[in-house]
Design a protein that fits this description.
This is YcgL. The protein is built from eleven helices and seven strands. By secondary structure, the protein is of the alpha+beta class. The strands form two sheets. The chain has a five-stranded mixed sheet. A two-stranded antiparallel ribbon has the order 6-7.
Length: 255
């Protein structure tokens, strides 16, 4: 599949007249709890030719398509990526941590990694993760039969919020790196069992509610919502990102 994805990225560059600077795996395969039939969620940063940036009409800033039923492509143009990075949108901070790279042409992402700590906003990120965890807990986890993957969506996001509350830093992408936050051995045992089930189950597999996990998620939400109140809103310094944008289009592709 790795070669197939690289070939499809090359076709996309040709058909859209873009240059993809960085492409990686995201979603459950990158988080560390895929099912055998999980989609491949490919995420990437791309740039247009310099002339497009000097045109009256701004170029498209997003590409989103299913190449096949299990191959999902989503890419951000670099100006959009830098803008959302500066606002501490968690997506670029997660994509930069992926262990599965499909393509990397320039030092664009390396330079983002170097400045990530100064742009990361604990306040913005903790509210993002809490929002996902709360919505998942209050909807999907209240069903009489719960989709197995929804437990991991809730656990990953509430643990990411707990990481921010404890360390005030960028939480790791990989689920296993978040597990040391849990000191309850019984809960760890339950989660390990759920991981084993998910590794063998189809994407839509359901199980009976795990109420012990529910209690942990509920407690984590409450604790992190209190912690989130102490974080202040940060004002980003846009000039370094503007400079990176100008440099990135300056050495870019020609028409």
């Amino acid at each position: 599949m790795h070669t197939t994805i690289q070939n499809e990225l090359a076709k996309l560059e040709e058909s859209q007249n873009i240059e993809i600077l960085y492409a990686c795996e995201s979603g459950s395969r990158a988080w560390g709890f895929p099912s055998p039939d999980s989609d491949y969620d490919v995420r990437f940063f791309y740039r247009h030719s310099r002339d497009k940036y000097l045109s009256i009409h701004p170029p498209d800033d997003n590409i989103n398509l299913f190449v096949t039923k299990d191959l999902d492509f989503n890419g951000w143009e670099i100006r959009k990526a830098l803008h959302l990075f500066g606002k501490s949108n968690v997506s670029p901070y997660e994509w930069m941590q992926s262990d599965t790279l499909y393509l990397q042409k320039t030092d664009f992402v390396e330079r983002l990694r170097a400045i990530a700590p100064q742009y990361f906003s604990p306040r913005a990120a903790i509210h993002h993760y809490l929002g996902i965890a709360r919505n998942t807990f209050e909807s999907a986890l209240q069903e009489p039969e719960v989709k197995l993957k929804k437990y991991f969506y809730a656990l990953r996001t509430v643990l990411s919020a707990c990481w921010i509350a404890q360390y005030q830093s960028i939480p790791p992408l990989q689920f296993y790196k978040l597990l040391p936050l849990i000191e309850d051995e019984q809960l760890i045992s339950i989660i390990q069992d759920l991981l084993e089930q998910k590794a063998k189950a189809k994407e839509g597999e359901t199980i009976a509610p795990e109420l012990y996990v529910h209690e942990f998620i509920k407690g984590g939400l409450k604790k992190c919502e209190i912690a989130a109140q102490k974080f202040e809103k940060l004002t980003p310094d846009w000039e370094p990102l503007n400079a990176l944008f100008r440099e990135s289009i300056g050495d870019g592709m020609q028409v």
